Amino acid sequence: MTARVRLLSKPGCHLCDDARAVIEAVCADVGATYDEVDITTAPGLSATYAEQIPVTFVDGIQHDYWRVDPSRLRAALA
Asked: pTM score, two decimals?
């Protein structure tokens, strides 16, 4: 099973913690799955997204960065 939502994050990032909480709640409400990738373990991701994290993808397409709006995420998953 492939997760519909992917969160790019890094340790110690308070915005990542906020984004994770929103993603967990919305995914639980709509029955979607999510996964999380630590960009510090992937040099290519770190170079590309270091200034934008957290970055959220829905169905493989970049959806948001810095903050996750629950209504916008819910609509994307509908």
From this structure: 0.92
Residue extents of the structural domains in the chain:
5-77
In angstroms, the Cα distances linking 73 to 9, 12, 31, 41 are 17, 23, 13, 26
Those residues of the chain that have pLDDT short of 50 are none
The fraction of the chain above a pLDDT of 90, given in percent, is: 92
Long-range contacts of 62-71 (CB under 8 A, 24+ apart): 63/5, 66/15, 67/15, 67/18, 67/19, 68/18, 68/19, 68/22, 68/23, 69/22, 70/22, 70/25, 70/26
- Under 8 Å CB-to-CB from 7, ≥6 apart: which residues? 16, 19, 20, 23, 34, 35, 36, 37, 54, 55, 56
Q: Does domain 5-77 have CATH number 3.40.30.10?
A: yes
